[in-house]
Each structure stands twice: as C-alpha cells, then as structure tokens.
Amino acid sequence: MPRQRLDLYLPEHDTPNAPALLFLHGGAWVSGSRADYGFVGVTLARRGIVVAIADYRLWPKVAHPGFVEDAALAARWVATRHGGVTVMGHSAGAFLAACIALDPRWGVREQMRGFIGISGPYDFGAHEVTPPAIFAGLERIQAAPVPLEGAPPLLLLHGARDTTVGPYHSEILAERARQAGVPVRHVVWPRLSHIDIMAGFTPAARWLRMGEPAVVDEIAAFLGLAEAADSRLR
C-alpha cells in the first residue's frame, strides 16, 4: 500500500552495530508524510544512526487501530534487519511509537531497544480528538498499559510552551515508568512550543538559534545508552 512505506537514511561511513531508529511523524492522525521529515533522517544519520522514517495510513482511510498496526509493521521490518530498533515519534507519531514500544499486544515490544517520545499525547479522551470517530468505540485512549513493567527505556521530550499537547502528558508517563522501575529520562525545555521542538533537527539550528539543538544531543546520547544496555543483555 502507498502509505505503508519508509525511507532509510544511512550514515556516510559504514558503522558496525550502528543503532537503528524508526521515526513516526505527527499530524493528528489525519495528515503528514515521511517526505516532510527528511531533515530528521539526515541530521541523525550524520550522528552515525541508521534512520527509517515511515508513513502510515491516516483517517479517513483507517481509524484506530489501523495506524498503530502500520507502525508495528514498520518497526518489525527495521528490527528484523538490525537486530532491534528504538522507535521515536512526534505528536501523534509519539502516540503510535508509545503504543508499539510499551504495549505488548502489538507484538513488537520484545524487539524494542528504547522509546523516544517528542511532545506526545499518551492518555486522552476520544472527545479531545478531531474528529472523535478516529477512535470510534473508545472513550479513553491509553498508549501504554499500566503498570509498565517490562517496557524498554524511555526518553520523553517536551516543550513547556506546548499548547497543542500539554507537557503533563510526558510528566504522567514519566512517573508511571518510575513507579514500574523502567529507566526514563524526562526533559522539558522552557521556551519550546509543539513545533519549535522539532526545529533543532534542522542543519542550521545551532547557527540561527532555531529551536533547541540539544534535542538531538539528548536523542544521540539515549541511543548510545540503549545500544549498550541491549548488548549487555545479548
């Protein structure tokens, strides 16, 4: 299917055991395309990371859980080829990433090395979504089961000025992870909004003072730790 596709961004130099990352875009489950996020793949590939950026089916072509199933399909493809994968998403994509990384019912959690959520909604009512029919038949939507025992490490990133998805979403998920004994790092940047937090991936971010380049630093550091932890388990 046209929406069940992904693009790969590879490091310039062949790096043995390079960490693999799957990125899922946002767009409120109604819009967005992998083609819009090539800058994420380019920036992270320059850090020695193998990056896959995937599309997934959108409303009204599918409702929940169709897009979650597509995310799981992409994660399984990447993980099979790289011996595991860390999954990352922004906004609605962070919800999808949380579902497949933290909830075993989607069948890929055992292949997950980590989860990175950027400005994601993780626990909300169907009435908060436009249109609510995207989550037809559900009143409350939770990306992750409670408790979270057995989940991979989490990195939760949010902007304090996010009025689209409140920072409390990351705060609540971080606390649930701590209660379950799951490793979690939770970072909030005071001046960033829902969109600003992605500007740090742009090549000119450090020079033009766009967004927060430290977002990329946090992700690279987390991937290194997740890789190290995974290698100790094998």
Structure description:
Keywords: Hydrolase. It holds the Pfam family BD-FAE. GO terms for molecular function: hydrolase activity. This protein has 234 residues and is of the alpha/beta class. It has one domain (6-233): Alpha/Beta hydrolase fold, catalytic domain (Rossmann fold, 3-Layer(aba) Sandwich). Helix content is 32%, strand content 19%. The N and C termini lie far apart (35 Å). The model has no long low-confidence stretch (mean pLDDT 92).
Please describe the structure with a list of short key phrases separated by commas or semicolons:
234 residues, globular, Rossmann fold, two-stranded antiparallel sheet, alpha/beta, 32% helix
Overall pLDDT = 92
Shape: globular
Intertermini distance: 35 Å
CATH architecture: 3-Layer(aba) Sandwich
Order of helix and strand elements from N to C terminus: EEHEHEHEEEEHEHHH
CATH superfamily: Alpha/Beta hydrolase fold, catalytic domain
CATH topology: Rossmann fold
Instruction: Report the radius of gyration as a whole number of Å.
Output: 16 Å
The largest pleated sheet is described as: 7 strands, mixed
What is the CATH level 1 assignment? Answer: Alpha Beta
Protein name: Acetyl esterase/lipase
InterPro entries: AB_hydrolase_fold, BD-FAE-like_dom, GDXG_lipolytic_enzyme
GO molecular function, one term: hydrolase activity
Pfam families: BD-FAE (PF20434)
